[in-house]
C-alpha cells in the first residue's frame, strides 16, 4: 500500500510552510528549506536564523554566498567575525581581515593575497622575509604575528 510522504518531506513545496523540516516558498520552523527560510537551521535562497546555509544569509552562524551575522563564512560577508575572500565594508584590498593585531604589534595590518608573488612584494615592504599560506591565499612574512601582545 503506498504511503504519503510526511508534510515537507519530499512533498510539493507550499506557498507557506510551518513546522519541523517544512518545505515551501516561505518556510518557518526547525530546519526549514525554501526560497525564504526562517528558523533554527534554515536552508534556502534567503536564510534568516541561528545557523543558515544559502545564497543570502542573515544569522548567527552562516555559510553562503552573501552572509551577514556574528560568525559567518561566505564569498562576501558582513559581520563581527567571518571568513571569505571579500569582507563588505572593509578596505578595497582587504581580502583577509579576520586577524586583529594589538597596537604593539610590529605589523599592524596584514592582508592575504591570491598570488604568492604579491605577498612576497608586500613582505619586502613590511621588512619581513617569505610568505605563508592562509587557506588558498598568501600572507606576507614567514610566520603569522603573535596576537597575544
Mean pLDDT: 76
Cα-to-Cα separation, first versus last residue: 69 Å
Oligomer: single chain
Strand order, main sheet: write it out: 1-2-3-4-5
Strand content: over 45%
Rg calc: 21 Å
Low-confidence stretches: 1-6, 91-109
**Major sheet description:** 5 strands, parallel
Number of strands: 7
Q: Name the overall outline.
A: rod-shaped
The string of secondary-structure elements, in order, is: EEEEEHEE
Query: In percent, how helical is the residue content?
Result: under 10%
Structural domains: how many: 2
**Main structural class:** mainly beta
Tally of alpha and pi helices:
1
Explained architecture:
This protein folds into two domains: 1-89; 101-149, no CATH class. It has 149 residues and is mainly beta. Mean pLDDT is 76; it is low at 1-6 and 91-109. Strand 6 (131-134) and strand 7 form a beta hairpin. The protein has one helix at residues 116-126, and strands at residues 14-20, 23-30, 33-39, 43-83, 86-87, 131-134, 137-140. It is rod-shaped, with a radius of gyration of 21 Å. The chain is built from one helix and seven strands.
Brief descriptors of the model:
7% helix; two-stranded antiparallel ribbon; five-stranded parallel sheet; rod-shaped; disordered N terminus; single chain; 49% strand; 1 helix; 149 residues; 2 domains; mainly beta
Amino acid at each position: 500500500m503506498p504511503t504519503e510522504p510526511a508534510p515537507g518531506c519530499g512533498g510539493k513545496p507550499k506557498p507557506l510552510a510551518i513546522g519541523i523540516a517544512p518545505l515551501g516558498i516561505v518556510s518557518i520552523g526547525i530546519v526549514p528549506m525554501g526560497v525564504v527560510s526562517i528558523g533554527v537551521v534554515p536552508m534556502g535562497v534567503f536564510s534568516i536564523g541561528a545557523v543558515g546555509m544559502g545564497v543570502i544569509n542573515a544569522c548567527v552562524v552562516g555559510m553562503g554566498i552573501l552572509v551577514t551575522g556574528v560568525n559567518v563564512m561566505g564569498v562576501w560577508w558582513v559581520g563581527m567575525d567571518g571568513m571569505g575572500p571579500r569582507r563588505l565594508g572593509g578596505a578595497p584590498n582587504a581580502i583577509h581581515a579576520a586577524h586583529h593585531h594589538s597596537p604593539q604589534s610590529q605589523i599592524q595590518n596584514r592582508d592575504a593575497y591570491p598570488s604568492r608573488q604579491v605577498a612576497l612584494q608586500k613582505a619586502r615592504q613590511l621588512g619581513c622575509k617569505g610568505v605563508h599560506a592562509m587557506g588558498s591565499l598568501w600572507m606576507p612574512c614567514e610566520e603569522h604575528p603573535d596576537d597575544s601582545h
